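In this supplementary section we document a worked example of the pipeline. Step one takes a protein sequence of length 319 as its only input; no multiple sequence alignment statistics are reported here. Step two produces a three-dimensional model, which step three serialises into structure tokens for compact storage. The input and output of this example are shown verbatim.
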Amino acid sequence: MKAVIMAGGEGTRLRPLTTNAPKPMLPIANRPMMEHIIALLKKHGFDEIVVTVAFLANHIKTYFGDGSEFGVKISYADEPVPLGTAGSVGNARDLLDETFMVISGDVLTDMDLSAVLAFHREHNAVATIGLTPVENPLEFGIVITKEDGSIERFLEKPTWGQVFSDTINTGIYVLEPSIFDYIAEGRSVDFSSEVFPALLAAGQPLFGAVMEGYWEDVGTLEAYLSAHYDVLDQKVQVDIPGFRINDGVWLGAGAEVSPSATVIGPAIIGPGCKVEAGCKVGEYAVLGNNVRLQPEARSSDPCCTTTCTWARAPACAAR
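The serialised model returned by step three reads:
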């Protein structure tokens, strides 16, 4: 099975974290967000992956390579200019000659991808949109479906006065190659505002499937922080590097924790970390690879998520 991971965004709302790194490479629980997506795709049988890249593309290509290290086959579709959500997928049309899935490389999710694929095939759809209910739909595209799942109406980023549903578009799609008839080449094209309305107007089978599982758009600093809390509270099923020792504490390979240090779970201590005597690692702390906490240092909340050394750290707050 084939899948497309959209990984070309700049992540401006996540700056300064994305100043020198593409958003899909930001670590969640010490692994890039996109690595969690690849693991989910592989779990559901999607082993041929096309990654659409633009901003700092070499960061992604260097880390993931041809995908063999992650048990999948990866190829890349470069965007010389921004092409929008549909345009970026259309840029890879030569590689997509069968039913395929589209998913963003900068979300955190454990949704049942097999179920939405089965729904798509059962309904002989040209396009199936993965849906999920949320408390605040204002930042997303909302969707209303009929009883059979066919889409009746949708609206991008409504005001409260326009809200007619709490069921939103997750950006997870199952598509047939005929979708490319509705994606113009050489310009920016958006799925939600152009392609899907065109399918609806043409009477093509366009469906929405409410998906089961966790989904979070990690598009802001607040969402990035919240995603770490949810991982540590095990509200979402992702692989955390290392092994669990007690009370929700994960210890990475080669990490050293002094017997006189205090670690309060849930917390993640990354590979190669050194927590020295008298240190306190508080609840929800996430120490990245090779972090060193010197005597009496304190850490709390998801912090040190990139490689660093605290030479004189009386405290380590979320950064």
